[in-house]
Structures are given as C-alpha cells and as structure tokens.
Amino acid sequence: EAQDAAAQAIRGAIADGKGHTFLLRGVTGSGKTEVYFRAIEDTKASGRSTIVLVPEIALTPQTIERFKARFSSLKERIAVLHSNLSDGERHDEWFKIHEDRADIVIGARSAIFAPLERLGIIIVDEEHEPSFKQDETPRYHARDVAVVRGSLEKCVVLLGSATPSLESFENATSGKYEALHLTKRTDGRTL
Asked: Against a cut of 0.85, is the pTM above it?
C-alpha cells in the first residue's frame, strides 16, 4: 500500500510537469527500488527522460543489470556514467546522451550534468551518502544540484534513503520537500 501511495504521488507530480521534490524514506527491503522503477516507467510514458544517481560504491554491474533487466526494451537507450570508464567509453556514453540516444542515465555524482533533453525525473538513491560531494574543484553536492536542476527544468526529484541527511530531513519536515514513507519491508516486517 505504501509503495502504491508513493508511486501515485510521484506519478501525479510527473504528470503536472511543474517540478516537485520528494524524500522517500524506507530501509533496505522496503521497496524503494520498485518505486524508482515505477517512476521511471511513468516518466518514459510521458515522453521524458531520467537520471538515476547512485553512490559510486553501489554502481556495480549487478545494479546496472538490474535496471537493464527491468527496462529490457530500452536496454540500448540506457547510458552509464562512472569513474571506472575509460576516456573513450566516457566519451561514447556522453555522445550517446548528447545525440538523444539515451532515455535513462545511471551514474555517480557527475551524471547529474548529463545533457538529457526533456528531463522528467532525477532519482538520487541513498541521498545521504558522502560520495555525492565533490571535494575537488568545482565543488558541489550532486543531491543539491539535482534539486536545483529539477527546479529549473520543472522535473520531479526523488531523494531516497533509509537514513536521510539532516538537510533533507529538515526540508521534508518544513514542507519544502514532500515526505513519502515505506513503513514495511516487502517481507512484511514493520519498520
């Protein structure tokens, strides 16, 4: 029920196209990834594109394959950006995005700058992770850039975490972000 309620709220925000930021709180196993998948499906159905930011440590072949399996019909339209790519691979992925041959970009913090057209949603998984902070010049926090880009491009921003950052928690508490809660794990245990 909580997954459906979260998905419905996000679907409505995608449809209205005014830009909206959500904080999705739920521990591992509560279904955050399923909510992400539904949001990506709704975004694609609206003819818009998606950026998914994950911490560098979570950007494993397994994570990428999970997205490609769920969106098998779009497998060729998924671009991946991370620090382990060679310069040639990185160039190829950026060029694919620039040529509008990608609908979904999955990557670490620098993927927030992917030149996607018709951006519909930015998902920041584990938004509290310190790896989203760029300590070298130019200094930025990918989560904060996502919120600003979402506002500028009138797209949905979905911040997910079991343990939100203090900044995001305060923004949700004060009403700047809309809070969504997944209170049960998919195995039925209550949080």
From this structure: yes
- Which residue type is seen at 55? P
pLDDT digits (tens, 9 = 90+) for 42-52: 999 999 999 99
Contact 25, 182 (CB under 8 A): yes
Q: How far apart are CA 124 and CA 138, in angstroms?
A: 20
In the beta sheet, which residues pair with residue 51? 105, 122
DSSP 59: -
Q: What are the pLDDT digits (tens) for 147-163?
A: 999 999 999 999 999 99
- Which residues on adjacent β-strands are paired with residue 133? 141
What phi, psi does 134 have (nearest 5°)?
A: -95, 115
What was the pLDDT predicted at 84?
83
**Burial level of 86, CB count in 10 A (0-12/13-18/19+)?**
exposed
Residues in the chain: 191
The whole-angstrom separation of Cα 147 and Cα 135 is 19
- Amino acid in the structure at residue 141: H
Give residue for tokens 């584990």. 126
Per-residue pLDDT at 188: 59
Give the other-Cβ count within 10 Å of 167's Cβ: 15
Predicted confidence at residue 74, as pLDDT, reads: 86
CA distance 120 to 128: 22
